[in-house]
């Protein structure tokens, strides 16, 4: 069910599937995408200060709540502090700026977007502060490798609720998934569809044909069966609907292992250890 949730390590419930809006243009494009997603049952939206579309996201969320007779508590809104904003005071400001642009009274989840060397622990202290003040229901990280998490956890007062990382059949992140599961950190998949590059893969096409599903749906189903939260991006209504229609079939254990076997440790995005975006 599209509104099914996972309980995070602080008790907060997060939908298993949400809409990602990276590269959705500020203005009509992002507004229409978010409104359409919520109208079709999505309850989670993933944005970031870096996406430069928080105003549109906020506007769309507010009107979708009204149009669909929903309460604010029924949607889960994530944003992230950008790399150039990291540090203690600058992160506090970044959080307030995001909240203001979104026009919301609180966020559901705020993430450290990348582990910027020498900065992410100070950034985390700022997240702990806004969390303690009740301005955000949960705090987490993104693009953290095991060694970043080890380092953070050695000093953190609050354990991150999620680690949002690049995750798809070419990058299955087995060690990181196991590590996060052990620590009670929910893994969340970004670029679950490999930014569209995986959709013609023959193995995946064969599995999809068996269920009368698309490759996108098979990959998203694989995420869910692995216990990974997923946030596919689309601004097209038909694809927004398609990506959410993954709750009426189940992959076999063998198919899960076949998809796991496609791993090539291949990233389409940046490597958190070598080329963090500026
Ligand atoms: P994605 O894997 O979700 O792929 C999105 C692209 O795939 C779309 O632009 C579209 O071209 C295509 N697509 C989507 N649904 C389709 C369908 N049903 N059929 C055919 N094509 C389809 O890639 P993404 O946008 O990079 O990742 C998803 C979300 O993850 C982002 O929007 C963002 O919210 C988040 N993200 C986070 C980070 C991070 O550093 N934390 C980085 C990248 C993305």
From TrEMBL:
Top-rank taxon: Bacteria
Sorted UniProt keywords: NADP, Oxidoreductase
Active site: 51 (proton donor)
Domain NADP-dependent oxidoreductase residue range list: 24-263
Cross-referenced Pfam families: Aldo_ket_red
Site (Lowers pKa of active site Tyr): 80
Range of residues in the leader sequence: none
GO MF entries: oxidoreductase activity, acting on the CH-OH group of donors, NAD or NADP as acceptor
Binding site for substrate: 113
Matching PROSITE patterns: ALDOKETO_REDUCTASE_1 (PS00798), ALDOKETO_REDUCTASE_2 (PS00062)
Family: Belongs to the aldo/keto reductase family.
Name by which UniProt lists this protein: Aldo/keto reductase
């Amino acid at each position: 069910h599209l509104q099914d949730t996972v309980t995070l390590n602080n008790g907060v419930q997060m939908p298993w599937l949400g809409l990602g809006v990276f590269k959705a243009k500020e203005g009509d494009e992002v507004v229409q995408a978010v409104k359409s997603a919520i109208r079709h049952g999505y309850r989670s939206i993933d944005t970031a200060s870096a996406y430069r579309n928080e105003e549109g996201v906020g506007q769309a969320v507010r009107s979708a709540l009204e149009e669909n007779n929903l309460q604010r508590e029924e949607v889960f809104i994530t944003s992230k502090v950008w790399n150039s904003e990291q540090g203690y005071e600058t992160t506090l400001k970044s959080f307030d700026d995001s909240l203001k642009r979104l026009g919301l009274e609180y966020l559901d989840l705020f993430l450290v977007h990348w582990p910027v060397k020498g900065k992410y622990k100070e950034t985390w202290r700022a997240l702990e502060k806004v969390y303690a003040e009740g301005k955000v229901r949960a705090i987490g990280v993104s693009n953290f490798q095991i060694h970043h998490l080890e380092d953070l956890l050695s000093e953190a007062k609050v354990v991150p609720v999620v680690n949002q990382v690049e995750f798809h059949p070419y990058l299955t992140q087995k060690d990181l998934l196991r590590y996060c599961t052990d620590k009670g950190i929910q893994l969340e998949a970004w670029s679950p569809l490999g930014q569209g590059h995986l959709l013609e893969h023959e193995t995946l096409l064969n599995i999809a044909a068996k269920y009368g599903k698309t490759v996108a749906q098979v990959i998203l189903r694989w995420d869910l069966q692995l216990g990974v939260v997923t946030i596919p991006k689309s601004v097209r209504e038909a694809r927004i609907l398609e990506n959410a229609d993954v709750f009426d079939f189940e992959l076999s254990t063998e198919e899960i292992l076949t998809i796991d076997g496609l791993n090539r440790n291949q990233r389409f995005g940046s490597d958190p250890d070598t080329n963090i975006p500026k």
